[in-house]
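> forwarded from #structure-qc
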């Protein structure tokens, strides 16, 4: 396989740029830089002139100047079966679920539907520069088969799982504690570690699982402690009241997951908006990850994610689209809405920090640092090429942009899939191959 040299303005992060004026030690930016890629992995990143005359002299050059090359975006919470509910008119979470989402997800029992949606879903991720995601499938085993088959075919690094839910949903969406366990186990055997695929134990959320099912979910995690767990937590006040009714013995919502052994360093908790101090302490203590879903939180009217409060308590965090409660596949649009949610609470979200979050930050949240999310040697070569002059409105604004930081701020404020010029998946040009 021929080596590839991606030439452009390369940017990668080493750590979270927490301070207001982010320190240059947290990232590397090379104006005329290049990435040397061999067998789908990053060999090194350096000045183009250095790589061209040395290690990369025989490589095929892909010249993306003057564009910016960053690691592929990572989306830490997305529902692939919800492509056809985006933008549904609903009051709040429980209405949105019952009226639209639970109706839509039943279609995944129909022959051919999961395969069709999975194929369109991955096209859409690539179009928007997202190369890794933690995804929910439906309760149906076939939805997971379709998802992983398509991801594997495209050689994309994905985390996904069969939703387990055995109450408070239409009969067509219910499994049982035993069938949920058996199906999950069979899917783990078939898919976990198959190429770039990783399995996540996926109890949808406490309201749709019986204590017996949560018990079985905990048992799965004890059997497969290397797996991710993904679920929802503290999104909406009516949801929280419902959990209190269903689990009257529990101290709070978080305690339900804690009780069944579902918290831990690979547990992804979608939303985490309405939490008590005791819950935050439990999440921090377990090293679980709070996943910020800004477009969804605004669209469904769930509330404002309090990043400062969580970070002060040492809660690990991630950012995500949460399609179909979320309204855009674009991590750029997601960063923009995240900025607004934090800004309205008087919190700062420096553009270096948001680009860190969509790449290395989310890789760390998924325990995948060194695998994806950066250009560190040995990492998988998932890259996004960004054009901050992709539209006429961007072009005129760029006339007054002088620094990289201003350019990042503009990309996240006005950018979308039109700014994504090319996407490399394990070193393979994938966006240009779509059309
Ligand atoms: Zn969700």
């Amino acid at each position: 396989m021929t080596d590839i040299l991606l030439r452009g303005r390369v940017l990668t992060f080493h750590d979270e740029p927490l301070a207001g004026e982010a320190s240059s030690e947290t990232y590397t930016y090379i104006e005329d830089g290049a990435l040397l890629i061999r067998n789908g992995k990053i060999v090194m990143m350096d000045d183009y002139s250095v790589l061209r005359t040395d290690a990369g002299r025989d490589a095929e050059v892909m010249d993306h100047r003057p564009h910016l090359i960053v690691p592929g975006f990572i989306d830490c919470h997305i529902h692939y079966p919800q492509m056809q509910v985006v933008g549904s008119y609903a009051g709040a979470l429980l209405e949105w679920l019952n009226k639209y989402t639970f109706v839509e997800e039943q279609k995944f029992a129909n022959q051919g539907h999961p395969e069709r949606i999975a194929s369109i879903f991955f096209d859409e991720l690539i179009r928007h520069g997202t190369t890794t995601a933690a995804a929910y499938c439906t309760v149906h085993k076939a939805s997971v088969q379709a998802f992983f088959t398509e991801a594997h075919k495209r050689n994309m690094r994905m985390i996904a799982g069969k939703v387990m839910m055995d109450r408070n949903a239409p009969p067509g969406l219910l499994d049982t504690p035993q069938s949920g366990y058996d199906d999950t186990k069979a899917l783990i055997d078939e898919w976990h570690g198959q190429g770039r695929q990783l399995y996540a134990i996926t109890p949808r959320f406490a309201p749709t699982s019986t204590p017996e099912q949560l018990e079985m979910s905990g048992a799965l995690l004890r059997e497969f402690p290397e797996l991710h767990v993904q679920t929802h937590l503290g999104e909406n006040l009516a949801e929280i009241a419902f959990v209190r009714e269903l689990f009257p013995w529990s101290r709070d919502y978080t305690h339900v997951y804690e009780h069944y052994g579902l918290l831990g360093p690979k547990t992804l908790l979608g939303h985490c908006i309405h939490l008590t101090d005791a819950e935050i302490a439990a999440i921090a203590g377990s090293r679980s990850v709070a996943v910020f879903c800004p477009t969804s939180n605004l669209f469904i009217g769930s509330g404002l994610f309090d990043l400062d409060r969580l970070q002060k308590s040492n809660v690990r965090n991630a950012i995500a689209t949460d399609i179909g409660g979320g309204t855009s596949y674009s991590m750029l649009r997601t960063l923009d809405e995240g900025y607004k949610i934090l800004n309205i609470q008087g919190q700062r979200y420096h553009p270096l920090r948001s680009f860190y979050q969509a790449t290395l930050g989310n890789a760390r949240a998924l325990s995948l640092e060194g695998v994806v999310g950066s250009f560190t040697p040995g990492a998988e070569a998932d890259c996004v090429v960004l054009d901050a002059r992709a539209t006429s409105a961007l072009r005129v604004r760029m006339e007054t942009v002088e620094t990289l930081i201003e350019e990042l701020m503009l990309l996240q404020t006005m950018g979308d899939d039109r700014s994504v010029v090319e996407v490399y998946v394990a070193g393979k040009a994938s966006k240009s191959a779509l059309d």
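QC bot note: The chain has a mean pLDDT of 97. The radius of gyration is 21 Å.
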